[in-house]
Amino acid sequence: MPLLDDARAMAEDLVALRRDLHRHPELGFRETRTAALVAERMEALGYAVRTGGGLAVVDPLSETAPRWRCAPTWTRFPSPRRRGATTAPRSTA
Questions:
Q1: What tens digit of pLDDT does each residue of 27-84 get?
Q2: What dihedral do alpha carbons 58, 34, 45, 13 form, nearest 10°?
Q3: Taking CA 70 as the corner, what is the angle to CA 58 and CA 8, rounded to the nearest 5 degrees?
Q4: Measured between alpha carbons, how far is 62 from 76 in angstroms, rounded to an integer?
Q5: Which residues on adjacent β-strands are paired with residue 57?
Q6: pTM of the predicted structure, to 2 decimals
Q7: Which helix (H) or strand (E) is 56 found in, with range?
């Protein structure tokens, strides 16, 4: 299955991205770093990305890019750190 093979090939990179995002949390409606990372990754995958307002990442339907969509929840609200977590936040935002 090509989709499953693609997912396996990207697994290590996606785990690293997830850990990075958890290390640098951003408060709700201030996710500019997260949006920039998502846009960068989507462009690397061949999407024609448009950004706006610092938070919006959009890929208009195109004939050349793969066709799938997701609606991530990026909003992060302050919470206590977990002791010993390997992905403890480093941001003070």
A1: 888 889 998 998 898 888 888 888 887 788 777 766 665 555 555 555 555 555 555 5
A2: -160
A3: 115
A4: 31
A5: 51
A6: 0.63
A7: strand 56-58
Domain ranges of the chain: 11-58
Element spanning 51, H or E: strand 50-52
Q: Which two tokens stand for residue 6?
A: 């693609």
Tell me the C-alpha distance between 38 and 42, whole Å. Answer: 6
Residue 7 structure tokens: 């997912």
Residues 6+ apart with CB under 8 A from 16: none
Residue whose C-alpha is closest to residue 38's, from 53, 59, 23, 8: 59
CA 39 to centroid of chain Cα atoms: 8
Q: Name residue 52's beta-bridge partners.
A: 56
Residue 55, number of CB atoms within 10 A of its CB = 16
CA–CA distance, 57 with 71 (Å, rounded to integer): 10
